[in-house]
Specification:
The complex is a heterotrimer of chains A (about 450), B (about 190) and C (about 140). Chain A is mainly alpha-helical. Chain A has a domain at about 1-160. Chain A has 16 helices and no strands. In chain A, helix 3 runs antiparallel to helix 5 (about 135-155) and helix 8 runs antiparallel to helix 9. Chain A is globular, with a radius of gyration of 22 Å. In chain B, helix 2 packs parallel to helix 7, helix 4 (about 55-80) packs antiparallel against helix 5 and helix 5 packs antiparallel against helix 6 (about 120-150). Chain B has a single domain, classed as Four Helix Bundle (Hemerythrin (Met), subunit A), CATH 1.20.120. Chain B has about 190 residues and is mainly alpha-helical. Chain B has 7 helices and no strands. Chain C has 5 helices and 2 strands. Chain C is elongated. The chains are: A mainly alpha (about 450), B mainly alpha (about 190), C mainly alpha (about 140). Chains A and C meet through helix 1, helix 2, helix 4, helix 7 and helix 8 of A and helix 1, helix 2, strand 1 and strand 2 of C.
Chain lengths: ~450, ~190, ~140
Amino acid sequence: MEYQSQAVAKYYFTAAIGLFVGQILFGLIIGLQYVVGDFLFPEIPFNVARMVHTNLLIVWLLFGFMGAAYYLIPEEAERELYSPALAILMFWIFLVAGALTILGYLLVPYSTLADLTMNELWPTMGREFLEQPTITKLGIVVVALAFVFNVGMTVLQGRKTVINLVLMIGLVGLAVFFLFAFHNPSDLVQDKFWWWWTVHLWVEGVWELILGSILAFVLIKTTGVDREVIEKWLYIIIAMTLITGIIGTGHHYYWIGTPEYWQWWGSIFSAMEPIPFFMMTVFAFTMVNKRKRDHPNKVAVLWALGTGVMAFLGAGVWGFLHTLAPVNYFTHGTQITAAHGHMAFYGAYVMVVLAIISYAMPIIRGRAANSNKAQVMEMWSFWLMTVSIVFITLFLTAAGILQTWLQRISDTPMTFMAAQDQIAIFYWMREFAGVVFLIGLIVYIMSFFVSEEDEMNA
Amino acid sequence: MTETIQKKLPGDFAIWIFIYAELMVFAIFFISYAVTRSNHVELFNESQQLLNRTAGMANTVALITSSWFVVNAVHAIKAGRELLSARWLGGALVMGGLFLAIKIFEFYTKSVEGITLSTNTFYMFYLSLTFFHFLHVVLGMVILSVVLINMRKGKYSAHETTGVETGASYWHMVDLVWIILFPLIYLIR
Amino acid sequence: MDEMFTKSMARNIFYGGTVFFFLLFLALTFDTMGVVPSRDNHENLTPTVIAGKTLWEENNCIGCHTLLGEGAYFAPELGNVYVRFGNSTEAIKGFIKSRPKDGIPGRRSMPQFNFTDEELEQLAQFLKYTSEINTSNWPPNIMG
């Protein structure tokens, strides 16, 4: 580790992994509720468990992004972090606020939480992924601003590289587009329209800049390829991301009361959204093939390559599958969407955070890479989790195709619940794949505790 | 290998990635137009009658002329004649400005008639495509202006023509798209 | 391939392309804001409906249901439930009211929210309002 202050990333990475476990446990609960409808009812109804599942995902990815930034920005800027103390303070504030919010979801009915947090003063709750009480949202803004200030000052006073510049643009964008979470018009169409300015412009916009810069950093460090080359690729990839992704927002504006021309604009531009992901895959593999050295941390390279492939499959291919308006007309709001969501989030964001953790954690813990044994174990976890997410996606896709057929296309359409009963087998298989995922995650965590007798020093 | 490709594609390759992407968008848009038209021939023909073909024709001439000016600008800089090259670029910008003026007039008359993207499918395509292209002309002019400013600063010479070629490539793309767009939307029925 | 282009050009395309397409997006957003009032059924956005939307949010209905296709996929689409229930707000209210407190053994069940009659009316009116938004004929059929 070149700069002492990079060590603050360890807090963030540890919290991220801890919350990741929580996310998966609640994923298994809701997966089971799909087939055993009364499981934990009425103590933890589906909506609560799902909210915990998705909110934990968002929060732990944010922890991961922040950890990544705290690790790589000092190294890129070639100076200590502006204020490590602020970083640690914000860590605890974010963790406590996040934990209180999750406990709030679990311990009291959601409407009671809305009352307790005085949602009526500024109603922002109860919209998908933005369920947090308004006070929590304000807390997120404070943490985000302090964080952006902290890393921003570090960059301003240090070396400016493409990687830390792009990361900064992504992080500032993340903070800016979150502000739309506070805009909740009574008009449902308006509400939905602006809601996507946070949700879409995050995951198919600024988050991809964060993803790109983290991936580029890991590749520079592990392959030793010229910074100049990697930075060029980074620019081109994120250029294509935003060129396709901004207007690509239109693929959410087909059926929510917005004008019909979005069916054309949205289809055409989102049909091109796989291109940057494909470039990212080519980029990752080209850089590894051109590598100037064999970094001892092989598993970090594996995660980086995995990010390229799985982001392309999940976000690119599975996104394209149902993005064209004539297809989306039938698949909108079915398990197809869920299938895409699972692989896209895992492939793009989970994997890139695990890649930077895999690269940075050994260094923070004082070694270039983990022992061979630990790395092999982590590789096992890579394959267990990746293969099971592929199966989760395939099973949900099958469920979604059948659902679409039974409920929306067949001459004798079934009701929603009747169709759900017909596809239960796929939910069972998905749940089974989910259990394998959890095993993969447990193996992943165990890999941190492998003793370092045959430690490799580079 | 690299050299032969560079000979084929003038300017910086990065602009070509952008050009390919843009051409792909326009191509999909054009194909969508053609397919949709075949399903609504009457509606399309009816609405098409109401377009200002004289304005469209004038704009075609304006863009082709400006493209020719840009070609001359590239030739001039390759011959090391910076001042001449700058003049041709200036001429191209004037023609681009003329295009914008005519196009704004067209948009204005349509908007006075109360025509919007939501009027009907034909006008959805007409306005989407021409407005999208309009923005490209604006962007192309911004790029040419930057090239012109750099030229004035003496950044280009007979040995350093990449910047001029890059800008020219983009401008030709904008022209090419119009050459397809104009007959497709204004004329063919 | 990367020998053929320069970093500064790649950077210019990133900044230029982003600004260009964001401005285009703003232009389309501006147009959308002009068209939405003719499709969004805002003339029926009464205080009752607005109260219903708040109830919808404060009980996290989106955590199980989809509304115009957005939300969770655990329970039926509600954007057209008013139509599916025979254009009847009474049927919607009756359904919500009749949910068993302890669920249905082995099956998915909506929780019992113990709404007052006034609240039930507000929710039902909100769902009626939603069903009258012009969604370009989505969903494909009455099943949602």
